[in-house]
């Protein structure tokens, strides 16, 4: 009997080791509107972020990580499907009354991992479909607790008072909290908003604890620091940068709770933890907006301030602690990388993401990605990047610099300006200030080849190209 017990224990350890080697847990924490410069590893001053720092110290910090588009819904679609959102027929932030949603036929990180035996859960902000059946549990997630879209889509002004007649907010319905497809509560005040982050964090810890013996995927889509800002009593007034700083400190605490839980259950060496953001800061909200880290403009633009976001990846024992990678990567590249590392299959339909697992595991210093298309609006191709070069195509763009910034939660204004054609060398000019197209005509010519490839493939409304390889979104029944 004694030897049988020893044998069974050894067998269990071998089985666990085999699972660990082939099926790491995956956690993606996706912040909302957190700018490149909003934490200490990326240059923030005045706010202590010890757990963001811990992520950087124990993992890899990506410095040229871009989202596919600089607004909520398209960016989230790109992350979960590994595909340019305009290939999926998605554009702009989906409203509560939007007539389209992410097509359930599209395979997501969740659905692909679920097929490979993973328990899948989502917490936080969805924003890829505004009514059932277009909620997460129909896209591969076993469970969902959170809100269907941005928390400023409610009948309350940014100051926390009920919306007045004639204001844009008056048109929105009450903001629900969903459990699966069912409304279980409503968010009616900024105090309610402030308590949501703590509730989501508690659920994240419970999810990890409950599923510690199984391979799991947790997608934690934090609603903050998108305006209106709100924070729990625990963090209110704790920073020297006002409410925005308080919110960042609470987000940092959330990461700390997850790391602590992983360490407690000895899961850190078998868990890939990714922390990133859906787009750059909504600059026009002034001191209630984040920092682009010195990049040009912010959310809603094709400038680096809109698409360049932080990304920290921790996988103890696999990803070199304290490493930095400065090659071009995008949030579309997470899906194929996770599929490779988990031994899962890729989607049947074409995707645009590229596996960078060899970078994560320290096998190469060269990025597998050389080209990135900057699309915005419905389907406007605004720029193309090749390695460290970025060719900006003539296009209309909103400009925060040409407008007036808000203060203390009040919305500012932006103006639409025309961006001329320009070539920027991001290695020497990350702020996109100096146009060098006349000095490097051969580079302009080279990138224009990629421009025409993008127009033929995905289309371009600016040049009236439809694109040959776009798929249809779901049409929401009214």
TrEMBL record:
<keyword id="KW-0378">Hydrolase</keyword>
<dbReference type="InterPro" id="IPR024607">
    <property type="entry name" value="Sulfatase_CS"/>
</dbReference>
<feature type="domain" description="Sulfatase N-terminal">
    <location>
        <begin position="24"/>
        <end position="343"/>
    </location>
</feature>
<dbReference type="InterPro" id="IPR000917">
    <property type="entry name" value="Sulfatase_N"/>
</dbReference>
<dbReference type="Pfam" id="PF00884">
    <property type="entry name" value="Sulfatase"/>
</dbReference>
<keyword id="KW-0479">Metal-binding</keyword>
<keyword id="KW-0106">Calcium</keyword>
<dbReference type="GO" id="GO:0046872">
    <property type="term" value="F:metal ion binding"/>
</dbReference>
<protein>
    <submittedName>
        <fullName>Arylsulfatase</fullName>
    </submittedName>
</protein>
<dbReference type="GO" id="GO:0004065">
    <property type="term" value="F:arylsulfatase activity"/>
</dbReference>
<comment type="similarity">
    <text>Belongs to the sulfatase family.</text>
</comment>
<dbReference type="InterPro" id="IPR017850">
    <property type="entry name" value="Alkaline_phosphatase_core_sf"/>
</dbReference>
<feature type="signal peptide">
    <location>
        <begin position="1"/>
        <end position="17"/>
    </location>
</feature>
<dbReference type="Pfam" id="PF14707">
    <property type="entry name" value="Sulfatase_C"/>
</dbReference>
<keyword id="KW-0732">Signal</keyword>
<dbReference type="InterPro" id="IPR050738">
    <property type="entry name" value="Sulfatase"/>
</dbReference>
